[in-house]
Amino acid sequence: HNAAPVFRDAELALACSKSGTWLVFDDVRNQRPKSNHVYHGIEQFLEIYGDRVKLEWQHRFCDCYSVL
Question: What is the pLDDT of residues 19-68, one digit of tens each?
């Protein structure tokens, strides 16, 4: 539940995924104040790999991206 491990997990999941795979992230928008939040890891992932994934849905705390 820190930015660096979330980024690394997302990066590894993308490397193992083929087109159409869904990547689901939990606790993206929880209300716990934290400087090194899950969301920061996802933001970093999207900055680098955002052209390889597409946001499919968001629900409360979860985000789902499909691999292009």
Answer: 999 999 998 887 777 778 889 999 999 999 999 999 999 998 999 999 99
Structure tokens at 44: 């970093």
Beta strand ranges found along the chain (DSSP E): 22-25, 53-59, 62-67
Residue for token pair 């993308």 = 14
What is the spatial distance between Cα 67 and Cα 46, in angstroms, rounded to a whole number?
Answer: 12
- Residue 31 carries which DSSP code? S
Helices (H), the chain: 3-15, 38-49
CA 17 to CA 56: how far, in whole Å?
16
The answer to whether 56 and 25 are in contact (CB under 8 A) is: no
Structure-block tokens of residue 1: 């539940």
